[in-house]
């Protein structure tokens, strides 16, 4: 939230520049998409890749590409997009630069659900791959609702600051429970939980893509459409009311979108928090502070970031893997710090 | 930083309340002494308060009870009090300087830095003596804070509060990710989790001897700075307008935070919630003057950690319950209540 400079003198030029930036990021995503399909334990040459895509590859090539790599890449794109938009909305609604899906307790809630399930019901978590995301989503949603209700006050609604503080407190409480529970896990289960919490695209499966897609297809356009509301909210409550905005309702709608997007992605990819924090900031550095540009740019950047991270994570210590959430932070944080050092305000 | 704009709209509770502050300091000190006595007397072996008194003031090395008190319980409970003071005061300074209500020592990269260096120690030098672990985690905390401030120092236009917070979040994310990576690869996650959970069971007199002079100097420094921090908490422009050299305040403030939080993190582990919650509670009780907030935070912080450590020993004896979890259990409901009741001025 560094300085809301509203450039009014040369609107059109700015618009064109921003569109070009978004197109450039999109092109990068496409390039990376192909590199990513090529990356893995079994390499596919570009020729083989194209052949396989058009149904002329060998059975093994088809299996690798369509059953393992493609769903995984698509999931990383969707999850990156959802987390970035969710983070952008939350930073706008709470008017705090540190907000990310974590402040609504989404990571903590999902994590607690997963740990509870593993500590009490399951000795082999990997057999439960379809049940686990559902549970994680319920955990995330419940936590968000609890935080909203706790910070809601009759007559006043929710103030951004109360929402943030409540979110931090509830997340801290849940983390405390999680720590007590993790200490009692068996080493194998602990390892699974650790990878889950770090965030990794572990369920490369078309069913997960299908589960994720409706959330993105429905909520993302609404988020783009509501982006202008965020501009008005950022002017401050009094001005926003003065401009005829029903603050409480708009806030609830925006928060619900953020929860839906982040909850769906966290349930499938685990606790990848950093994308939601930095993608909106990077977007702001590139296209300015207007949310109708920030939100779509953040979505593209989130996809790019997470797909890159997942590709690197698959490739760097083959045949083993590094969770994408870790790679995102390791490559994202230095770049973010560099931008921070370079920026003027 | 729209948050602080809301804060400085003067509501009645913004004012300083010296009477409440004096009451907290006196009442807090009395209850602290009582609690320390209680905490020493109860444990795996119960010892009556009279014996506690003689063990402290007329130590007899032949009595087992006296030895338990002198070797185990006294350093531990004093360590708890010190750790509480450190976390609370450093959190109060952070929140005052950055004007962000979410700031605590964890945000400066201190916790993440300490965890990162410890992960390296656990992975590559297993079986390192406890004393070295403490030393290395302090160095790690300094590394984290150094990175955060380094980015701010390189930046054009200096270290704004916003930049400090963002740099802190990014450095923490980076170091946490690295330690998670090390933990997953070398399968030492659960060892690290014990450290995260926190605990004071290993506290010895030597730690206290090393820590105390540093902490004392840092606390005096914090009190000397408190007036400038109050001005900074009203906003950088206000502070400059009142003739303050904000750069100097921020520099010394940062060093004090590093010493206090670094010492605390290295002894007890990544128990972050004290530094977040105690300054809020204190501000709610005594108003917005840091000359009162800092001493009152220190006392309330000490109380909280002593109580939590006592509970950590008593909940499920002879096993230790993680102190970080207990602090959260005590702190979260109270904090939620304050967030609801206090509303904006929190």
Task: Could you tell me the CATH topology label of chain A.
Answer: ABC transporter involved in vitamin B12 uptake, BtuC
Would you report the number of β strands of chain B? 0
Mean pLDDT of chain B: 80
- Return residue spans of chain B where pLDDT drops below 50 for at least 5 consecutive residues: 1-13
Order of helices and strands of chain A: HHHHHHHHHHHHH
Provide the CATH superfamily of chain B: ABC transporter involved in vitamin B12 uptake, BtuC
Q: Examine the coordinates and then state which fold CATH places here, giving the name of the CATH topology of chain B.
A: ABC transporter involved in vitamin B12 uptake, BtuC
Describe this structure in words.
The complex is a heterodimer of chains A (345) and B (346). Chain A is mainly α and 345 residues long. Chain A has a single domain (11-342), classed as ABC transporter involved in vitamin B12 uptake, BtuC (Orthogonal Bundle), CATH 1.10.3470.10. Helices cover 75% and strands 0% of the residues of chain A. Chain A is built from 13 helices and no strands. In chain A, helix 4 (106-120) packs antiparallel against helix 7 (187-198) and helix 5 (131-151) packs across helix 6. The radius of gyration of chain A is 20 Å and the shape is globular. Chain A starts with 10 loop residues before the first helix and ends with a helix. The radius of gyration of chain B is 20 Å and the shape is globular. Residues 1-13 of chain B have low confidence and may be disordered. Chain B has 14 helices and no strands. The relative contact order of chain B is 0.17. Chain B has helices at residues 2-8, 18-41, 49-57, 64-98, 110-124, 130-154, 161-186, 189-197, 205-233, 236-241, 246-268, 273-286, 290-314, 323-342. Chain B has one domain (45-345): ABC transporter involved in vitamin B12 uptake, BtuC (Orthogonal Bundle). With 346 residues, chain B is mostly helical. The interface between A and B is large, with 64 and 62 residues.
């Amino acid at each position: 939230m560094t300085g809301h400079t509203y450039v009014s003198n040369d609107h059109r030029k700015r618009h064109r520049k921003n569109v070009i930036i978004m197109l450039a990021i999109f092109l990068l995503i496409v390039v990376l998409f192909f590199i990513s399909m090529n990356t893995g334990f079994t390499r596919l040459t570009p020729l083989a890749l194209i052949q396989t895509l058009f149904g002329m590859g060998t059975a093994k090539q088809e299996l690798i590409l369509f059953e393992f790599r493609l769903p995984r890449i698509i999931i990383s794109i969707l999850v990156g997009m959802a987390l970035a938009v969710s983070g952008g909305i939350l930073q706008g609604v709470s008017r705090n630069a540190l907000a990310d899906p974590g402040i609504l307790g989404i990571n903590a809630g999902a994590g607690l659900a997963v740990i509870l399930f593993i500590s009490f019901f399951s000795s082999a978590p990997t057999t439960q791959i379809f049940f686990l995301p559902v549970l994680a989503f319920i955990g995330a949603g419940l936590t968000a609702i609890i935080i909203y209700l706790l910070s809601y006050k009759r007559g006043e609604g929710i103030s951004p600051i109360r929402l943030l503080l409540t979110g931090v407190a509830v997340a801290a409480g849940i983390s405390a429970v999680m720590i007590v529970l993790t200490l009692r896990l068996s080493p194998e289960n602990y390892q699974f939980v650790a990878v889950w919490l770090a965030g990794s695209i572990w369920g490369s499966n078309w069913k997960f893509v299908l589960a994720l897609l409706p959330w993105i297809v429905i909520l993302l356009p609404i988020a783009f459409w509501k982006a202008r509301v965020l501009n008005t909210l950022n002017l401050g409550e009094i001005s926003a009311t003065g401009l005829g905005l029903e603050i409480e309702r708009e806030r609830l709608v925006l928060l619900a979108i953020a929860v839906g997007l982040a909850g769906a992605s966290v349930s499938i990819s685990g606790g990848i928090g950093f994308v939601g924090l930095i993608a909106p900031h990077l977007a702001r550095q590139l296209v300015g502070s207007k949310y109708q540009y920030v939100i779509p740019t953040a979505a593209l950047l989130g996809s790019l970031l997470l797909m890159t991270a997942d590709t690197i994570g698959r490739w760097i210590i083959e045949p083993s893997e590094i969770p994408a959430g870790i790679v995102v932070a390791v490559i994202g944080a230095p770049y973010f710090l560099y931008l921070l050092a370079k920026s003027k305000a | 930083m729209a948050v602080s704009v809301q804060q400085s709209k003067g509501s009645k509770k913004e004012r300083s309340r010296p009477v409440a502050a004096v009451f907290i300091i006196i009442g807090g000190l009395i209850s602290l002494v009582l609690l320390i006595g209680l905490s020493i007397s109860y444990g795996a072996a119960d010892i009556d308060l009279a014996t506690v008194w003689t063990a402290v003031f007329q130590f007899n090395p032949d009595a087992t009870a006296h030895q338990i008190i002198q070797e185990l319980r006294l350093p531990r409970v004093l360590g708890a009090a010190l750790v509480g003071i450190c976390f609370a005061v450093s959190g109060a300074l952070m929140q005052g300087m950055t004007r962000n209500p979410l700031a605590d020592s964890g945000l400066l990269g201190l916790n993440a830095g300490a965890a990162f260096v410890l992960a390296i120690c656990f992975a590559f030098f297993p079986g390192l003596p406890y004393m070295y672990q403490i030393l290395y985690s302090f160095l790690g905390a300094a590394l984290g804070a150094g990175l955060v401030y380094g980015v701010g120092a390189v930046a054009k236009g200096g270290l704004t509060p916003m930049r400090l917070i963002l740099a802190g979040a990014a450095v923490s994310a980076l170091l946490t990710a690295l330690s998670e990576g090390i933990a997953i690869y070398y399968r030492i996650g659960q060892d690290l989790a014990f450290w995260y959970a926190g605990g004071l069971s290993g506290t010895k007199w030597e730690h206290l001897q090393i820590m105390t002079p540093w902490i004392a100097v840092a606390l005096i420094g914090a009190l000397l700075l408190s007036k400038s921090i109050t001005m900074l908490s009203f906003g950088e422009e206000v502070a400059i307008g009142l003739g303050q050299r904000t750069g100097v305040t921020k520099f010394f403030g940062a060093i004090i935070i590093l010493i206090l939080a670094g010492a605390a993190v290295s002894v007890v582990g990544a128990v972050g919630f004290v530094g977040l919650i105690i300054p809020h509670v204190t501000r709610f009780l005594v108003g917005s003057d840091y000359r009162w907030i800092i001493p009152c935070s220190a006392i309330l912080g000490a109380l909280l950690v002593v109580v939590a450590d006592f509970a950590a020993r008593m909940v499920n004896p002879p096993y230790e319950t993680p102190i970080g979890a207990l602090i959260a259990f005590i702190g979260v409901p109270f904090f939620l209540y304050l967030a609801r009741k206090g509303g904006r001025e929190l």
